[in-house]
Amino acid sequence: MERRLFSIDEVAEYLGVKKWTLYAWVSQRRIPFVKCGRLTKFDLRMIEQWIQENTIEEQKFDLGRKF
Description:
The protein has 3 helices and 3 strands, in the order E-H-H-E-E-H. By secondary structure, it is of the alpha+beta class.
């Protein structure tokens, strides 16, 4: 069986942010999370989807264009 829920420490490391940043995002409802009683857990599938939805695509600029 595949592990699905991860701790705040694990997801903070995975995303490359500090644990307290992740706690702030949770309190602001900016990132999906799951409450297991008093514990805050994260579904890795939902985190991956959140990353996809919040990814900003690269823009190409035509530097030779005159305005």
